[in-house]
Design brief:
By secondary structure, this protein is mostly beta strands. It folds into 2 domains: 4-78; 89-393, Autotransporter beta-domain (Lipocalin). The protein contains 1 helix and 25 strands. It has one helix at residues 83-112, and strands spanning 4-9, 15-22, 25-32, 36-39, 49-54, 61-65, 72-76, 80-82, 123-134, 144-156, 161-174, 179-181, 184-194, 202-220, 230-251, 254-269, 272-273, 281-283, 286-303, 307-321, 325-330, 337-341, 349-362, 365-375, 382-393. The strands form 4 sheets. It has a 12-stranded antiparallel barrel. A 4-stranded antiparallel sheet has the order 1-2-3-4, with no helix packed on it.
Length: 394
């Protein structure tokens, strides 16, 4: 280059920053005593850059660089990053965390609903496998898929009351999400009461307690241009309680059951510290809760001698929803501490529909398949679930 300009110097004068001409155009530089001048490059798509300031020890440089999005402020510590995108990575992580935690809550709700009825002294054993997929939202929320397998056992205390327990394993994949989930494990204790016993007529009541634990994998900065990925992992745990009341009655060959349910979920994400990026952060433990009321009606009718068709519609409504907040510390200049709330808004009222078929295999065993279509907690695309289960009474 033919010329250069100095715009900043560190506390002891050992590091100078500025801009200089090069064969590639104007470039920000960092000069260190005894080492010489270092070309800091540009942001993606940029043709020029200038450094205007440096911190006291000379390790952090700030300036302006051209980019594919126009002139942008940059920050450099070993690698040039888009400063605006770097700051944006925190609220993006907050929103992605909200989506991931909601997926775990939904999966636990499925486990707590894995109950059944048995006559006095009789046992019921059921196994279920299912998958729930939500398409990518056109604006912000990526596609996600949750697969779940559950095993339940219940014992008839009387002809009207069955008590049981369920265990589950699940895996959730959140595409293009800064917060992903590893394999999780869940468990539930449940009780089912039917005034009419196995006929399921009259007053119906169900209650369940549930717990699920997964490992969250974090990659802050994912999909943001010129932001180094900061990675970490933390345990995610959800505890929940659920109660449902309904009434079953016969109507022109159908068993019709309107019902009202309430579920409360309390989810925590453990504290963790990021690694791997030029600028990392440490996060305090996070806690969020959600209370959901469900109003629905199902109808079931016999198909031939061995089959039963079931149809259902309903609506979930967020009675109370607490948005997660990211709090902690970072080594980003100007962001030593942070308290950032999620800006993602849940769909407070969500309609759904179900259709299922059960085939009696004889000797107290049956196989069932069902489809559930409804609006997801976050995003505008539909969530579609498929399930297959086998149960036997003995």
């Amino acid at each position: 280059g033919s010329s250069s300009r100095a715009y900043g110097v560190n506390a002891d004068g050992s590091v100078v920053v500025g801009s200089g001409d090069s064969s590639d155009g104007t470039r920000a530089f960092r000069w260190v005593a005894g080492a010489g001048m270092e070309n800091l490059g540009t942001l993606t798509g940029g043709s020029s850059s200038r450094a205007y300031g440096v911190n006291a020890d000379g390790s952090v440089v700030v300036g302006v660089s051209g980019s594919s999005a126009g002139d942008r402020a940059f920050i450099w510590r070993g690698v040039m990053e888009d400063f605006e995108n770097l700051i944006t990575s925190f609220p993006v992580l907050g929103n992605d965390s909200a989506v991931a935690l909601a997926e775990q809550q939904f999966a636990l709700g499925q486990v707590m609903g894995q109950s059944g009825l048995a006559a006095a002294g009789q046992s019921i054993l059921s196994a279920r496998a299912g998958v729930q997929h939500t398409g990518r939202n056109p604006t912000s929320v990526g596609a996600r898929t949750t697969s779940l397998g559950a095993l339940s056992f219940g014992r008839g205390i009387s002809d009207n009351l069955t008590l049981g327990a369920s265990i589950s394993v699940n895996a959730t994949s959140l595409q293009n999400n800064a917060f992903d989930m590893d394999t999780g494990f869940g468990a539930a204790l449940w009780g089912q009461y039917s005034e009419g016993g196995l006929a399921r007529t009259g007053l119906q009541f169900g209650a369940a307690l549930g717990y699920m634990r997964s490992r969250g994998e974090v990659a802050r900065g994912r999909l943001l241009t010129d932001v180094a990925l900061a990675t970490g992992s933390a345990t995610v745990e959800t505890r929940a309680v659920q109660a449902t009341i309904g009434y079953g009655f016969a109507q022109e060959g159908w068993l019709v059951t309107p019902s009202l349910g309430v579920a409360h979920y309390d989810t925590t994400r453990a504290a963790y510290t990021e690694t791997g990026a030029a600028f990392n952060a440490s996060y305090d433990a996070l806690r969020t809760s959600r209370t959901v009321a469900t109003l629905g009606v199902t109808g079931e009718v016999a198909l031939g001698e061995q089959g039963r068709l079931s149809l259902g519609v309903g609506v979930d409504h967020e009675v109370k929803s607490e948005r997660p907040r990211l709090t902690g510390t970072s080594d980003i200049p100007g962001l030593a501490t942070f308290d950032i709330g999620s800006t993602a808004s849940p769909n407070r009222t969500r309609a759904f529909a179900t259709v299922g078929y059960t085939h009696d295999l004889g000797n107290g065993s049956s196989i069932s398949g069902n489809v559930r279509v409804g609006q997801a907690v976050y995003g505008s695309t539909l969530s579609v679930g498929l399930g297959l289960s086998y149960s036997m009474r003995f």
